[in-house]
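ok, trying the design again with the full structure, not the truncated one.
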């Protein structure tokens, strides 16, 4: 039962990479300790759940269990929250501290249909909410939002500095910070971000593509999923791929669906060179990588899925990274353990990871066992 519903004035808010004018109506669920908000922008209505500590039992950083601290990703759904559930079920305790939402893979992607147990797919947001509920059942201490800004070595372990001035001390730390989307090196692209250029293909963006031509850049699974999702509403979807073979980076089941979709055109060896439009995007200029010929394709929205950069800037070179900036693990150490004993990395931020939700959740569960092994050693 929810009580205390109220409305706040219209304001600008950035949601899943989209800047829009919104009016927030919220209600507080005292039993579950969550505030539910409806975001309204004319015909656009989006429901989301902002997790906050329950009244009367607010969790503080200094209350964290001394055994383990998890540094969460850019969103609670960024792979790390399921690991919190696994950890608390096994008695490891700990204090997950995800930072405020941003461009995380799980929160921004369309429902993956290859995730075991969900044949129709499950969105990152829904998976995150289920994981949080499950973690809370096992008394996981959640700090949302609580941005970790530094990792420091202490006498008895490690200290994690927080953006609000707080600090958490722990003997072990699990890093599940994920990665952020890369952009295109195209002049004037920033002008259209949030009003024609997007890095996510959720329901929010899909509502703006009804009966309109759109373009999707990328040759991986995220690009393929987005193209299929948008094709259900868009007039036409052009999938622009720099490489010459989708099979090198995209799952076969997605390729088969794309080939069967009449609303999707695949353009291989193609790169975006220019964006056309005044206040809103109207078209994209693309270049054929074989002939150098340029063509103009009408596109009212452009979706970019060309990889990501790991979220490691806050670590200040405390752990060893690979050539692309991802965290190295398992070198003369336990599996998933970084160059710092007792500091583990899981999910997309880890060098050599599969970049899939299922594998990241598995790594989180594996890290729990390794934390116990490190603590008992």
């Amino acid at each position: 039962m929810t009580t205390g519903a109220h409305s706040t004035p219209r304001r600008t808010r950035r949601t899943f990479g989209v800047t829009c004018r919104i009016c927030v109506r919220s209600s507080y669920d005292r039993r579950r300790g969550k505030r539910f908000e409806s975001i309204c922008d004319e015909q656009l209505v989006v429901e989301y759940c902002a997790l906050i500590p329950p009244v009367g039992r607010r969790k503080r950083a200094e209350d964290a269990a001394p055994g383990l601290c998890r540094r969460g990703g850019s969103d609670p759904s960024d792979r790390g929250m399921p690991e919190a559930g696994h950890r608390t079920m096994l008695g490891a305790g700990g204090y997950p501290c995800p930072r405020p939402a941003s461009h995380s893979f799980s929160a921004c992607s369309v429902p993956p249909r290859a995730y075991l147990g969900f044949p129709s797919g499950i969105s990152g947001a829904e998976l995150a909410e289920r994981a949080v509920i499950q973690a809370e059942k096992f008394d996981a201490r959640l700090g949302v939002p609580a941005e970790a800004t530094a990792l420091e070595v202490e006498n008895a372990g490690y200290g994690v500095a927080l953006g609000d001035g707080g600090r958490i001390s722990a003997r072990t730390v699990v890093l599940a910070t994920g990665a952020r989307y890369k952009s295109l090196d195209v002049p004037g692209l920033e002008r259209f971000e949030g009003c024609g250029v997007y890095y996510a293909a959720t329901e929010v963006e899909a509502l703006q593509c009804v009966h309109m031509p759109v373009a999707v850049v990328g040759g991986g699974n995220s690009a393929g999923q987005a193209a299929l999702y948008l094709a259900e509403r868009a007039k036409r979807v052009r999938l622009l791929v720099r490489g010459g073979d989708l099979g090198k980076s995209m799952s076969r089941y997605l390729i088969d669906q794309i080939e069967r979709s009449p609303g999707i055109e695949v353009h291989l060896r193609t790169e975006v060179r220019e964006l056309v439009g005044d206040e809103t995007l109207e078209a994209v200029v693309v270049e054929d990588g074989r002939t150098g010929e340029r063509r103009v394709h009408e596109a009212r929205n452009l979706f970019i899925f060309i990889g990501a950069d790991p979220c490691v800037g806050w670590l200040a070179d405390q752990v060893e990274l690979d050539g692309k900036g991802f965290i190295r693990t398992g070198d003369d150490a336990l599996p998933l353990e970084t160059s710092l004993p007792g500091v583990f990395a899981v999910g997309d931020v880890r060098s050599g990871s599969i970049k899939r939700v299922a594998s990241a959740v598995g790594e989180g569960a594996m890290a729990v066992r390794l934390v116990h092994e490190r603590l008992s050693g």
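Keeping the full-length input from now on. The CA atoms of residues 79 and 360 lie 6 Å apart.
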